[in-house]
Amino acid sequence: MPIRSDLRNVAIVAHVDHGKTTLVDAMLWQSGAFREGSAHTDRVMDSGDLEREKGITILAKNTAVHRHATDGSGDLIINIVDTPGHADFGGEVERALLMVDGVVLLVDASEGPLPQTRFVLRKALQARLPVVLVINKTDRADARIDDVVDECYALFLDLDADDEQIEFPIVYCASRAGRASLHKPANGEMPDHHNLDPLFDTLMQAIPAPTYTDGAPLQAQVTNIDASPFLGRIGMCRVIEGTIRKGQQVAWMKLDGSIVKTKITELLITEALDRVPVDEARAGDLIAVAGMADITIGETLADPENPVALQPITVDEPAISMTVGINTSPLAGRDGGSRLTARQVKTRLENELIGNVSMRVLLTERPDTWEVQGRGELALAILVETMRREGFELTIGKPQVVTREVDGKKLEPFERLTVDVPEEYLGAVTQLLAPRKGRMENMTNHGTGWIRLEFHVPSRGLIGFRTDFLTDTRGTGIASTLFDGYGPWAGEMRSRATGSLVAHRPGRATPFAMFALQERGTLFITPTTEVYEGMVVGENSRQDDMDVNITKEKKLTNMRQSSGDELVHLIPPRALSLEQSLEFCSDDECVEVTPTSARIRKLVLNQGERARTRSKAKNKA
To answer: In the structure, what pLDDT confidence band is assigned to residue 39 with cuts at 50, 70 and 90?
Structure first.
């Protein structure tokens, strides 16, 4: 079968924070993608504002570097796909693997394989893609290179890799320094080569060139969607067979089975960080096409005379859901939001489905509320954060798990939780996970003062877990999760041990009232913040909710007092981010999200109605 010897397509996959995007930066620099002295930023592939703020990759993106082949066969193009490292964005990884012929598995020289490492490697092995193992950050003071390599071999065996797959090359890297080596350095030492040439050479040799069939008709599959103010919607494709040209007539094979003949108005390929127009692309090329107004992921571009559709793209099912609706609070429209109607929210959610195949949007009983399902809390929180920056005001329900009914039995999703903590917090972590139905399956002590714990825990037990975990470990713990299938319903569990402080009248919070209330719990708001009936203003130290008057003012009299002008000393409030607000929510609460704030509120705002609902529930019990 003929091959494209001038081309390699490779995806870089790893757990979050193991250095994928930094490595791509170094590869771009050393391939001449940036001019000397040109203005640039670190992690150029993380181009989104949210990606830079959170320090994670959210969307898979591709770039291309040019290298001169060491065997003298000429110039070589290496298409590199940078993928997210967080399990909640696994749908991006699954699509990226359809575009490539091999993967670079990046593993931290100290942390070793973590849950997302297992996820991406399992997908790569299932697709029969060759793997190049890169041990990154060899210069870390706590590096343990030999142990990490052994753990990687164990992971391959655990995932049923065959004899061919387990014979993978190993490259040792320090991506921040732009250095690599085929020879193992000592722990904490730099690789002996002064650049990344050993990595590039290994990719050229270990990653197979794209293959194609001579004379085969055109086949290209859309794996991602982008948009341009000049070209409209752009479909990101890999050409599987044949040749595609600008201005060519193609058969657009939609997911509903219909076939539409259309014209390719623009054909682009990636060079470094830019898309450049070309007249023609061949089998193996990663391209961007324009000319189809509503093209979606998974559709096929084929020869109009002989249209043959490719298999549609499938990804793992979502495990977490939450409701998204219009803002129904008394402060709706007063926080700078410009998109307030149900029609605008519905259109935005439908547009999200076009480029995000791992999301689901379902109807609910209310016409202004929808159920959104995704891989995890972070993926859903990123969607809400993006919408609030676009000017939406929303009401977000508490995250729930997506359950299944099989043979009359209720099943729920489970997660594999990996925790790295200092030894002294072992008891705190196990005590935290016990009421959440977490079962410890493995404990490893590396002898460095840190231990690694592995738990099997229901997904709903991890809702609200991260904040308590960071508090109990004094911010030192690292927790990673991976979807681990469905299992029998684990029974009832208490989501939060504390109650809420709830405002029972509208107005502005006063320092006088807050000073009296701060002994009752932790406040979330600052003085003069506008509140309304049913708004959660703090966390009660006891289990039950407490209705409070946070707008109470100090009564003035005409009598002189020596203590009349005493200063009020308030404890600084606990400011909650959007993710923390979603985690804090109890079953009868929701989050009001606006462009400037995120407020927790009761589903039923009226104090009397809530009291009647509670009494009815007690009488039924």
So the answer is: very low
| Lookup result for tokens 């005409």 | 558
The alpha helices in 280-356, defined as continuous H runs, are: 342-355
* Per-residue DSSP letter, 311: P
pLDDT, one tens digit per residue, over 515-538 is 989 888 899 999 999 999 999 999
Asked if residue 313 has pLDDT above 80, the reply is no
Residues 6+ apart with CB under 8 A from 242: 212, 216, 217, 218, 219, 283, 303
* Cα–Cα distance list, 210 to 11, 74, 77, 169 (Å): 14, 17, 12, 20
Q: Tell me the sheet residues that pair with 3.
A: 211
> Token pair for residue 51?
């990606």
Radius of gyration (C-alpha) of the chain in whole angstroms? 27
CATH of residue 269's domain is 2.40.30.10
- Number of domains the chain is built from: 4
State how far the Cα of 163 lies from the Cα of 168, in Å rounded to an integer. 10
Residues in the chain, how many? 621
- Residue whose tokens read 């007249």: 279
Nearest by Cα to 131 from 100, 158, 173:
100
Under 8 Å between Cβ of 377 and 463 = yes
CB 551 within 8 A of CB 508: yes
Phi-psi region of 447 (alpha: psi -120 to 50; beta: other; left: phi over 0): left
Of 302, 335, 368, the position where a domain reaches its end is 302
Range 514-535 burial, b when 16+ CB lie within 10 A, else e = beebbeebebbbebebbbbbbb
H/E stretch holding 145 reads helix 145-158
Whether 445 maps to a domain, the answer reads yes
Task: Classify residue 315: in a domain, yes or no.
Answer: no
Answer for the pair 401, 489: CB distance below 8 angstroms, yes or no.
no
pLDDT tops 90 at residue 23: no
- Residues 587 and 521 sit within 8 Å (Cβ to Cβ): no
* pLDDT band for position 601 (cuts 50, 70, 90): very high
Q: How far apart are CA 379 and CA 90, in angstroms?
A: 10
Residue 383, H or E segment: helix 377-389
Structural domain of residue 597, as residue ranges? 499-554+568-620
503 & 484 share domain? no
Residue 382 DSSP SS3 = helix
Stretch (H or E) spanning 445: strand 439-445
Least Cα distance to 197 among 229, 224, 173 occurs for: 173
Burial degree of 200 (CB within 10 A; 0-12, 13-18, 19+): buried
* Residues 6 or more apart whose Cβ sits within 8 Å of residue 328: 368, 395
User: Exposed, middle or buried: residue 591 (CB in 10 Å: 0-12, 13-18, 19+)?
Assistant: buried
Whether the Cβ atoms of residue 504 and residue 532 lie closer than 8 Å to each other? no
> At how many degrees (to 10) do helices 115-126 and 90-97 cross?
30
- Return the higher-pLDDT residue of 513 and 446: 513
Confidence grade of residue 68 (pLDDT, cut at 50, 70, 90): confident
Residue 283's Cα: distance from chain center in Å?
Answer: 31
Give the HSE-up count for residue 100: Cα atoms under 13 Å, Cβ half-sphere: 32
